[in-house]
Design a protein that fits this description.
The complex is a heterodimer of chains A (578) and B (82). Chain A has 3 domains: 212 residues, Rossmann fold; 164 residues, Rossmann fold, CATH 3.40.50.300; 144 residues, Helicase, Ruva Protein, domain 3, CATH 1.10.8.60. Helices cover 42% and strands 11% of the residues of chain A. With 82 residues, chain B is α+β, with helices and mostly antiparallel strands. Chain B is elongated, with a radius of gyration of 13 Å. The chains are: A alpha/beta (578), B alpha+beta (82).
């Protein structure tokens, strides 16, 4: 039985070193198919698998974008592999390939979630790149839809959170926002960067009679002053050189809805006057037009400046300020409403878990929450969101613990310990121990996450032995005895027949230490599609033997680590590794 | 109150003034009629606790009904101003 292998596309210098080619997993027991298809997959990173089992194992250890899946495999059917993929992953497109063009197979494949069904033919081989491109395009569209749906759900939950805020200050702001929503009055929302001024503006829009109309956001600071006229009001064809067609501006785009002017304090004098005229007259003039166009727009404005001080210093027009000042609210910074933090963090974890396609969002442990509570959040909700996004991406468990939180967030907690000691110096302090332990654990978890769960690689990156790393993890209850015993190769393992629980629980698909059982041995060749590098792994039953044409690999990324280690294990251990 | 506003049109006339107390805050609203070649429109100048604001009434809109809601919200917003 052939061993699976990974082949990188040829690196084209003009595209730079960081060429991110999509990865195609080719699953077929016929070596001739792999050889033929390779000729047409030159621009893709390719992983070859020869059985259903190898395919699923490769999927559990590598990033894969598209699977080319044979219908008949030695250990199972392509349909069964397809079902397994669909159970766990929605972000991989599967193209079924078979030598038999039976309609019922094609129908069955599509019903089970395949993107396409191809008959093995010279013509289809030639067009395989196009089929893969379409599959990738389809996946991108699906992802955009998911993001849009996630964003809508997130907004709905964010609005609920606003309404149920435990902060008295924010509660007052929300009550006023609700009352003003159904009026044509302008609203000025002040607050530090990242407090959620945009979310409050959307909340007002959603509660207004304009809710079915457009909500258009204009970030004033992002538009050059010279382009502002055309950007806001649009232009007619021929208004200036290059104006080849009539364009409508943001005010017209927001007609019947709400225009949210973010960073309104950044407007220069001329733009302030233009905005004043629109608020007074409710009409705009496209550049180059002779007649004004009436607009029915409600304006909400936000700024992180104290606008009345800008007026005092002559940087903002007083008459415009008066018009924005009818309802003037300030969204309190996150540090002033720590009571909202747990629910906000939960919501953000949920949002990003959804966007990353993770079924369940991780929870926030008591210790982690305590660390977050003590932090003063200069970047406000935006900073919390960035952190929660990192946590979803990196934290491997269902619960985020304090050790998962980056060190900069602990400093207030450590300060608190120091303050407690200074207040009662007769007691004992373990500040140094606490700080170093926290940092060690954080670093270990970070490196494990960056090594895609490969603990041996993480240990090497940290410059400590694998045993030391396991000891450190055991201290925090993250390695049990069973896991510690899992590491040696399981050469005598038998390939089970497909069943409801296939692949078997002990198939190693979930090995978080990078396997070491030699069943998958990917190698990044980086030397062209026609020069696959096949590295024989530790023998497993029912496998076809293949000869390696190996010419080495200089890539040292995490995906290659199992292969490197398999090879090392055959050669003997690296000194100091264990 | 004596606050002065400078509406944009040259032909400006104060046509009415009302005052009320909302949530313990006294609010005064003065109505201006502004005439130009485009026709007439209204502005409402609000003042409470030394804070001022202006509401532009769209042409054809009823200044009185807008003023009542604006006065109430304007008064309540005093507590939310930091």
């Amino acid at each position: 039985m052939s061993e699976p292998s990974v082949t990188s596309p040829p690196q084209r210098p003009e595209q730079g070193k960081e060429l991110a080619a999509p990865t195609v997993l080719v699953v077929d027991d016929e070596e001739s198919f792999h050889r033929n298809i390779a000729k047409y997959l030159g621009h893709y990173r390719r992983i070859n698998a020869y059985t259903g089992w190898q395919a699923l194992e490769a999927l559990s250890k590598h990033h894969v974008d598209v699977v080319l899946l044979d219908l008949n495999l030695p250990d199972t059917t392509g349909f069964h592999v397809l079902e397994q993929i669909r159970k766990e992953r929605d972000d991989i497109e599967v193209i079924m390939c078979t030598a038999h063009s039976e309609i019922r197979n094609a129908v069955e494949a599509v019903k089970k979630g395949a993107f396409d069904f191809l008959v093995k033919s010279y013509e289809n081989y030639q067009n395989i790149s196009e089929h893969i491109r379409r599959a990738l395009e389809y996946r991108r569209t699906k992802r955009e839809l998911l993001e849009s749906r996630t964003h809508k759900n997130w907004l709905r939950e964010a609005f609920q959170l606003l309404e149920n805020t435990r902060s008295d200050m924010l509660s007052l702001v929300v009550r006023l926002a609700r009352r003003v929503a159904d009026t044509p009055l302008t609203v000025l929302i002040e607050g530090e960067s990242g407090v959620g001024k945009g979310v409050l503006a959307r909340y007002i829009h959603s509660r207004s009679e304009r809710a079915d109309g457009p909500f258009v956001t204009v970030n004033v600071s992002a538009v050059p002053a010279t382009l502002l006229g055309s950007y806001w009001f649009g232009h007619v064809k021929g208004a200036f050189t290059g104006a080849e067609r009539t364009n409508i501006g943001k005010f017209e785009l927001a007609d019947g809805g709400t225009l949210f002017l973010d960073e309104v304090g950044e407007l220069d004098g001329e733009a302030q006057l233009k905005l004043l005229r629109v608020l007074q007259e409710r009409e705009i003039e496209r550049l180059g037009a002779n007649e004004p166009t009436p607009v029915n727009v409600r304006v909400l404005a936000a700024t992180n400046k104290r606008l009345h001080e800008e007026v005092k210093f002559g940087r903002f027009r007083e008459d415009l300020y008066f018009r924005l000042n009818v309802l003037h609210v300030t969204v309190p910074p996150l540090r002033d409403r720590p009571e909202d933090l747990p629910e906000l963090a939960r919501l953000l974890l949920h949002k990003h878990a959804g966007m990353m396609g993770r079924g369940e969002s991780p929870g926030l442990g008591v210790g982690a929450l305590e660390v977050l509570r003590r932090y003063d959040w200069p970047g406000n909700v935006r900073e919390l969101e960035n952190l929660m996004m990192r946590m979803v991406a990196l934290a491997p468990r269902t619960e985020i613990r304090e050790d998962d939180i980056p060190p900069e967030y602990w400093l207030p907690t450590l300060n608190q310990v120091a303050d407690d000691f200074v207040a009662r110096p007769e007691g004992k302090s373990n500040l140094f121990y606490l700080a170093t332990q926290q940092f060690q654990r954080y670093l270990i978890r970070l490196m494990i996450a960056r090594s895609h769960g490969n603990k041996r690689l993480a240990a090497r990156a940290l410059g400590i032995s694998y045993t030391t790393l396991k000891d450190k993890l055991r201290e925090v209850g993250e390695v049990d005895g069973e896991e510690a015993e899992q590491v040696p190769a399981r050469a005598s393992q038998r390939i089970p027949r497909p069943s409801a629980s296939w692949p078997p629980p002990d198939s190693g698909a979930g090995d978080d230490d990078g396997a070491g059982d030699g069943r998958v041995s990917p190698v990044g060749a980086g030397n062209g599609a026609d020069s696959d590098e096949h590295v024989p792994a530790v023998e497993a039953p029912a496998r076809r033997e293949r000869t390696s044409a190996g010419n080495g690999s200089d890539e040292r990324n995490a995906a290659e680590a199992p292969a490197s280690r398999s090879a090392r294990e055959r050669r003997g251990r690296i000194p100091g590794e264990d | 109150m004596g606050a002065t506003f400078e509406p944009s049109e040259s032909s400006v006339e104060q046509v009415a003034e009302i005052a009320g107390v909302h949530g313990g805050v006294e609010v005064r609203a003065r109505f201006y009629a502004l005439r130009s070649s485009k026709g007439m429109r209204h502005e409402i100048a609000l003042e409470a606790s030394g804070v001022r604001a202006v509401v532009d009434v769209p042409r054809g809109g009823n200044p009185r009904s807008i003023a009542e809601r604006a006065m109430s919200i304007f008064a309540d917003s005093m507590a939310a101003r930091v």
